[in-house]
Amino acid sequence: MNNLEFSKNEMTNLVHWINNKGWSPATSTNYSFVNPENQSTVLISRSGVDKGNFQNIDWLQMNRAGRLLPEFEHEKSSAETAIHVMLYELLNPKVILHTHSVLDTILSRKFAANGNLKLEGYEVLKGLPGIKTHDSSVVVPIVPNAQDMDNFVKETQPILIEYDRVFGFLIESHGLYTWGNSISEAKRHLEVFQFFFECEFQLSLLF
């Protein structure tokens, strides 16, 4: 098994794990990763696939500009492909994950007027790169939802650039994007954010 097939297997397993968590209802959510055999291409999830039934054949290959390679041109990649292209250009991760959990959606609405959600004092902050103590804070940008992906990217990119460090962002009433330099790191970041969101939601019920 070559590195690409191994990565497909790992990513497909991760998609199933995310689905089993209830973070990809219906056929929502999308995922991508850089081809380990050819860094100039990216594999992205096929549009409209129930993530519980997602298979290795549902990974489509595209170039860094988001254009599907000739052998995949008859297929349809995620409607949010442009967001993946933006993130690869801006932050150069190896893996991008996009979820639609209930907490993604609730908190993105609750804090939308603030433009961000500030997370501080949590021990699990140390699950994010460069953070060595709970006495730290992370700001998660919240950007307006939109259906026009070209305009969305134009409006979102400068928002992300404003932050010194950003490990993920929320789209209002929509979901979370996070990423990493490996499959395991991206999964860890996703788990960290979902843990934070659960804590923030529970705190809002207590106080």
Compact summary:
This protein is α+β, with helices and mostly antiparallel strands and 207 residues long. It is 36% helix and 20% strand. The chain has an 8-stranded mixed β-sheet with strand order 3-2-1-4-8-7-6-5, sandwiched between helices.
What's the topology here?
Blueprint: H1 3-20, E1 30-34, E2 41-45, E3 59-63, H2 81-91, E4 95-99, H3 102-110, E5 116-120, E6 137-143, H4 149-161, E7 168-171, E8 175-180, H5 183-206
Could you characterize the architecture of this molecule?
- This protein has 207 residues and is of the alpha+beta class.
- The chain has a single domain, classed as Class II aldolase/adducin N-terminal domain (L-fuculose-1-phosphate Aldolase).
- Helix content is 36%, strand content 20%.
- It has 5 helices and 8 strands, in the order αβββαβαββαββα.
- It has helices at residues 3-20, 81-91, 102-110, 149-161, 183-206, and strands at residues 30-34, 41-45, 59-63, 95-99, 116-120, 137-143, 168-171, 175-180.
